[in-house]
Each structure stands twice: as C-alpha cells, then as structure tokens.
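[Discussion] Sanity-checking designs against the backbone

I'm trying to build intuition for which residues belong where. Below is a structure token string of 247 positions. I'd appreciate it if someone posts a full sequence so I can compare it with mine line by line.
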C-alpha cells in the first residue's frame, strides 16, 4: 500500500490575526499537489478561525491537547473541545513541549491515547538531542519513546510519526538525507518488530528539522521519508513548494 505523502506546518507560537489570514489566503489560492495530505497547526487562539476560513481539503491541528475530558485544568484544552471546533488533528510530543514544558514520555503517550481514542489524529513527535546523537544513542532514544507510546495505544491508524532531531529544529542544520533515512528505516523496523508488519508498512514517518524549499526534494526521494513536519518555513509562501516536493 502506497503511503500518502504528508506535510504538516507547525506555526508554533507565531502569527497574528492578519499574518495568519494571509497564510490561509495563500494556501487557499495555491496549487497544491492533490496527492499530498496537508495539515497546518496554528496557535490555539487561531484554531477556529483557521478551520472556518481554510479550504476543507487542508487539515488543522492543535499544538497540544490535555488528557482529561474537562474540569479544573486551567490553560488546557480537551479533545472534545477540539472536536467541537472541527479540529481533527493534534501535534503531540514536540521536543519544545518535551523540553521546555517538561512533558514526559508518559504524559505524551497518555495524551496520544486519549486523542486517538476520541478520533483525533496525532502527529506524534520523537527525536534525539545533539548529545544523544554524538553519544550514538539516537535509535535507542527514539525506540524508548516509541515503546512508551506502544504501551498506551493499540490503534496506530490515527498516528503519523514525526522524526525530529532536536539539533535540527529551528537551527538551519538539516539532517543529511542518509542520517534521516537511517532513522526512518530504524523506526519502520521497530514498528515491524514490536507492533506489526501492517502498521510498519502503513504508518507515515515524517522528517522535521529545518526543512525548506531547497532541501525538501532530495529528502522526499528517500524510501522511508513520507513527508515533513515544517516549522519556520510553514509561515512563508515557500511552504507550498514543500507541499509540492514530490512533483
Ligand atoms: C518543528 O517545529 O517541528 C520544526 C521542524 O521546526 P523547523 O522547521 O523550524 O526546524
């Protein structure tokens, strides 16, 4: 089964009403590869406006979701609230949340379980720090993150994995095609060994970390790279070129 190419745009904590309106207009008027699934993720305050104004062929993702259904959790948003606003996706386990907001593997896995069980698909992020890469423990680190996820979920059909080496995020230091392909292949092998051949074959594995319109085509040729999670470049018109990387 061919995996549909997937490009996610993570706006992080960037944008204003006017700049996000411009991004939405740009995407609505762009010629996007019909064979690529596109999902954009604005800050939560803009989720509903973006969902209402963006072409319905493009998905919208929250950048976080809490694992409790409702109640006294100041500052959090529930899965049901996302669904009530027609938001079908969430990015979970982004390294900025794992490091700056101190989210553990357990917290990320729990959020992913609650989201996917309620029908919200998840771009689930993993990846190693520079120290871990230099210590040669990349595959070990990613495998540990995957093992935590596996212990919480059984349905992988709503998961898209994003491999994002922390040292490549927002730094301009993109992983080489062979560095990225090596880890993507290892993730697929991990899924085959620990989940099933079917899940390994069907799960999209995205690369994230300083992807831009210049480096995307070569990365997109790799057999185990099924798309991208894009930060900085998703705020620019060049995001369209990344969506069209396979053309
Ligand atoms: C990200 O935030 O997921 C990301 C990959 O950022 P950037 O593309 O800016 O490196």
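Best answer:
Here's mine. Compare freely.
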């Amino acid at each position: 089964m061919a995996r549909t190419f997937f490009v996610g745009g993570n706006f992080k904590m960037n944008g204003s009403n006017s700049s996000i309106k411009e991004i939405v207009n740009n995407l609505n008027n762009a010629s996007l590869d019909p064979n690529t699934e596109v999902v954009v993720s604005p800050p939560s305050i803009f989720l509903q406006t973006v969902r209402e104004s963006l072409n319905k062929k493009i998905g919208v993702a929250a950048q976080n979701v809490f694992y409790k259904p409702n109640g006294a959790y100041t500052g959090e948003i529930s899965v049901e609230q996302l669904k009530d606003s027609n938001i079908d996706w969430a990015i979970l386990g982004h390294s900025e949340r794992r490091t700056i907001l101190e989210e553990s593997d357990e917290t990320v896995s729990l959020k992913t379980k609650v989201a996917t069980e309620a029908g919200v698909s998840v771009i689930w992020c993993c990846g190693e720090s520079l120290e871990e890469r230099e210590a040669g423990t990349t595959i070990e680190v990613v495998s540990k993150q995957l093992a935590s996820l596996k212990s919480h979920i059984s349905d992988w059909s709503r998961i898209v994995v994003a491999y994002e080496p922390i040292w490549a995020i927002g730094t301009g230091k993109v992983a080489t095609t062979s560095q990225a392909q090596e880890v993507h292949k290892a993730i697929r092998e991990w899924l085959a060994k620990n989940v099933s051949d079917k899940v390994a074959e069907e799960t999209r594995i995205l690369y994230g970390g300083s992807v831009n319109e210049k480096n995307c085509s070569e990365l997109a040729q790799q057999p185990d790279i099924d798309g991208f999670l894009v930060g900085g470049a998703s705020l620019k018109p060049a995001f369209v070129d990344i969506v069209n990387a396979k053309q």
